[in-house]
Write a structure and sequence with these properties.
about 30% strand; Nitrilase/N-carbamoyl-D-aminoacid amidohydrolase; alpha+beta; disordered N terminus; 6-stranded mixed sheet; 5 helices
Length: about 300
């Protein structure tokens, strides 16, 4: 049993769970208001949902949507750099990034409390399924899995579909992150049955809490909420501790400011009692860096 001691080192995470409208300007203004509200509640590191500036446009393939992309730095990052500097907080800002040579990325920008950009993460795993046609828009990330050292802690960022891949969470943990943040846009297709919806949402939550356990770190997830086109986003944003415990969780239907208090001193204590990182057998993991094992093919491990 992990017991709290006087060495507690708390960081307050604020997650913005919100509905998106057609107007990018209105979405940005709402996000700014909600961040101010979260800071009044004590938030120090704030996270917005994936692609929060617009409604979820990858439900269809259209060249017109590329007009929504912007550079980094650009208009959206400038707004939140000023806000971070004013409020003296860290803000993680998702952006549909235009990156020269007609490349586009699903990106998150980490802005420190002085308004400076600490760096960016470009989504690595890009889905391509009905109503989630992201490969039409986004080039897979080219910057790897990073840790960003901010005023309030070392943070890692992955984006939505990345949530399902334990390798990504592990690499972020090994890079030194205390908290792994997932900006997210995930929901149900309107024709799905209720039982199937519940199974999907449970799996989504379970795997991310498992990442927290397997890596002994905090995980924070900000999802959008409400109906857009044929999708209903299921909300349920949450903060989980290094043993997978739920620290805070939002509803499935309302806009909310979710506040989670994270004691970062728990990380080293949990990792000492449950030394999953220490006991890894990297000498026999070569198959995980190849495509072996897919489609029923058995990987050949070199021992």
């Amino acid at each position: 049993m992990i017991k709290l001691k006087n060495s507690e080192r708390h960081v307050v995470v604020g997650l913005v769970q919100m509905r998106m409208v057609r107007s990018p300007g209105e979405n940005v203004e709402k996000a700014v208001r909600k961040i101010r509200e979260a800071v009044k509640k004590g938030a120090q590191i704030l996270l917005l949902p994936e692609l929060f500036r617009t409604q979820y446009f990858p439900q269809s393939r259209s060249t017109e949507h590329f007009q929504l992309a912007e550079t980094i730095p650009g208009p959206t990052t400038e707004v939140f750099q000023r806000l971070a500097r004013e409020l003296e907080v860290v803000i993680i800002v998702p952006v549909f990034e235009s990156h020269g040579q007609h490349l586009y990325h699903n990106t998150a920008v980490v802005i420190d409390q002085d308004g400076q950009m600490k760096g960016i993460y470009r989504k690595m795993h890009i889905p391509d399924s009905p109503l989630f046609y992201e490969r039409h828009y986004f080039t897979p990330g080219d910057l790897g899995f990073k840790c960003f050292e901010t005023r309030f802690g070392k943070v890692g960022v992955l984006i939505c579909w990345d949530q399902w891949f334990p390798e990504a969470a592990r690499l972020v943990a090994l890079s030194g992150a205390d908290i792994l943040f997932y900006p997210t846009a995930i929901g149900w297709v309107s024709k799905e049955r209720k039982a199937e919806r519940m199974r999907e949402r449970t799996a989504w939550e379970m795997i991310q809490r498992a990442h927290a356990i397997a890596n002994g770190m905090f995980v924070a997830v900000a999802n959008r909420v409400g109906g857009e086109g044929e999708l209903t986003f299921w909300g349920r944003s949450f903060v989980a501790g290094p043993l997978g415990e739920l620290i805070a969780q939002a509803s499935g239907s309302r806009e909310e400011i979710l506040i989670g208090r994270c004691d970062l001193s728990l990380i080293s204590r949990v990792r000492q009692e449950w030394p999953f990182l220490l006991d890894r057998r990297i000498d026999v993991y070569q198959a995980t860096v190849s495509n072996s094992g897919a489609d029923g093919i058995q990987p050949q491990l070199k021992i």
